[in-house]
User: Fold this.
Amino acid sequence: MEVRDTDILKSDQSAASVDQAYKLRVKDLNFYYGAFQALHGISINAEKNRVTAFIGPSGCGKSTFLRTLNRMHEETPGARVDGEVLLDGESIFDRDISELRRSVGMVFQRSTPFPKSIFENIAYGLRIRGVDRSSISDLVEQSLKRANLWEEVKHKLNKSASSLSGGQQQRLCIARALAVNPELLLLDEPCSALDPIGTSKIEDLLLEIKETCTILIVTHNMQQAARVSDYTGFFLSGKLIEFNDTKSMFETPSSKLTEDYITGRFG
Amino acid sequence: MATMVAEAPLTRPREKKARAGRGDRIYHILIKAIVGMVLAIFAGVFTVVVIGAWPAVKRFGLGFLIHTGWDPVHLVFGALPFIVGTILVALGAMILAAGIGLMTAVCITELLPRWLQAPVTYLIELLAFIPSVVYGLFGLLVLAPFLQDTVEVWIMEHLGPHFEVFNGAPYGVGYMSAILILAIMLLPLIVTLSREALVLVPRDVREGGYALGLQKWDVVWGIIVPYARNGILGSLVLALGRALGETIAVAMTIGGGYSLPKTVMDQGYTLASVIANEFNEVSSDMYLSALIYCGLILLVITVVVNILAYFLIRRLSGAHGFKA
Amino acid sequence: MPMASKRKTVSYTWRKWRGALGFGLTGVATLISLGALFSILGYLIHQGIGAINWNFIVREPAAVGEAGGGIAPSLLGTLILVAISMVVGMPLGIGVGIYLSEMAGDTRFANLARVAINTFIGVPSIIMGIFVYFILVKPTNTFSAVAGGLALGIIMIPIIARTTEDVLRLVPKSIREAGLAIGAPKWRVTFDLVLPAARAGVITGGILAVARVAGETAPLILTALGNEYYPTSLFKPIDEITLRILKYARGPYDVWHQQAYGAALILVFGVAIGSLLLRLSTRDRDALSR
Assistant:
């Protein structure tokens, strides 16, 4: 095993130029829940500082795919993966899991504030990471500002996070993810529970933060994918049917299935 | 540009588990140690009871279960009267408490106006918080003398000559007192749990009944109660377990006696109450061991009842597709 | 429903009367249930209130059969026994609850543990008394506070384990995932995020278990025994309020009976306050989940 590991690493290093352009490379990823195969040979390259969106009908495997990228699937009993996932050319499966998750932030469909104050929600992640005590409150302010939430909450940092509106909670979760400076940010249908105003605030936010990190977003909303993403992948029945830059994907889809989905014939 | 990759053999198995950090390893070991310790305690309870009962088991064998006679002087012991007592007291109390308790639960959920439901439920729940010894106190000092002076005298005079089962002496304390006190103790358990089961019946099930043009009574007994029967059965099983094992309230009201009961007014013992009442009187190791043997029988009965109940409820809920 | 079709033939008036009769019976049943409650509480207050005064709470028992004296050693003993039982029962019970909810999943060992917990909730408390008698009282040759507390603690374990598992399972999975997603190790997710989110429920379970064991008498007969005097050592027999009630109720003196009512009234008052706290804390939990 160890020998093969280094073999693969070597071949990756020889393709160093590729690694620099692509933050994340996935090669032939298969995913199983027990005997059921949920993902079939997914291969994808995600560019640095770009937003890559994944669309598809529910149950198509797009969320499952996203959850393997920070190894969240390992919390599900019976889940199994094979294939390559390289972050900056290094396999995520060889990294320490906690350390990996600190560099790959994740935001979920339902906002998930911790049962703590607004301040503590963000400070908690910093403390886990061992950030110096004295710099915590600065970092909290900074991340709330990056998430465009600071002005709305700066007077009530000690209030419970559950007192915020749904959209604010979701931006708090993004702030929490940003606080530890992730290289990659995964968003799993972050706007599906939000009203249009909350949604547009988050979309604006994504366009700002892609300056500093690479974003992968799963959405069932095609307009959203078209608005925020640079690249789009279309999943169907556990297979990646098509992957292309967003403009080409929506204007001239190469697959009949993609075209049917985009034009609303199913899903 | 479809990206369907066909090069299969490139994959390598990902069986390597995430290496847990040091904190997580300590956490796992600690929690598993606690679980191991608790299971060891549980196993220890069984083992110790068996060991404690062993001298009596060796001497009396299974005959202990079917013999009468309790003579600490000549060391002759048989637990049949206590086994019979346990079953009679538990069944008698269950019949009373199940009937009244279930009807009370129906009354609370289906008949009482909304504003009365919560306070009545709370009052009956309060009954569940009263410790057994207080029931025993009430049974011994209030209920038993009352029964002795009124009900039992009447029964003896009017029913006694005609029915052997009523032809006893009015002691006050005895089976009748123990059964009544135990029934009162079981009531809150049955009422609160079956009330919860009835409240959980979905609104459309009720409305479906009314839409058929059924009377309220028919909807309640024909539809709502059957729908909630798993929860109701669960409450009865819990109550039965409690009834079999109740110790101090029964010990205070059943009077004490070593022979098989002939009438409802006789005095006797249940398995649990004989241990509580005789334990501090033991004069020999064999006597102690015989009492622990009673404890072993009680333990086996309650465990068997619990396990049967578990499978019964699981089968019922499986067969009808109701979600637990 | 086959009943319904059969009943179509029954006349409307009869059905109406039968309903009224049926509901009338349920009303009578409710009155019986409430009547039992009120007669017990009423009698307790009527008889017990006269026994309760300052001396009753702060004095030791008087000489046998004489008036006066109090139950202070029993009250103190009850507090000590409950404290010991919490030291034993809380960490073990909560630990098992955490295991069942956070670590075990559906493995065979976990199901074994679950069956064991459910079985032990149904085991009569006097059995735990027998257990502690043999492992502690007999070897040390003395009844003691430690033995009594241990027996009560063992009774608590399965109750606390089950309520803890139940309330931890109510914490949304998403909170755990969010914690893991920011790189928190599992033990921190459990202790920093899941347990605080379920705090109200865990406390409720604790109060419930304490209320349960504070009213236990049977196992104490085999372990704590009872005592006329203030506790001087954890390794000597100790009194407890239900043991005191038992002794006084069985005694031949009227003054003992009255003091038994007084002690019972104090005990019931105590658990009623406990149940009130329980109500309030569950209301908080409901408010949180909304």
